[in-house]
Amino acid sequence: MSAALELALVVLIVGWAAIAALRRLAPRTARRWQAGIADRIDRPGRPAWLRRCGRVLRPLAASGGSCGDGCGSCGSCGPAPAGPQPLVFHPRRPPAPRPPGGGR
């Protein structure tokens, strides 16, 4: 494999990993950056294919969280906890006996 192709592949993989990490660790920032890029691409006077790419890149409207998604932001999602739950430890079970001769 040529050095240029190898370098391009490494750059693509590292860039993809950085974007995935950003979306995972800072979703609001990633959404804001994505919307900014989409707005720059989808401007009047640009070619139709480029504007279409901008519309595809535009992030979906963020939902504020509903009672069905279990977010707990409004305090009314699901039943209220009953209070502190006791911590219960279960003893370990002994391992199953092995057949004579090693089992192999």
UniProtKB/TrEMBL annotation:
It comes from the Bacteria. It holds the Pfam family DUF6587. Residues 84-104 are annotated as: Disordered. InterPro entries: DUF6587. This is Uncharacterized protein.
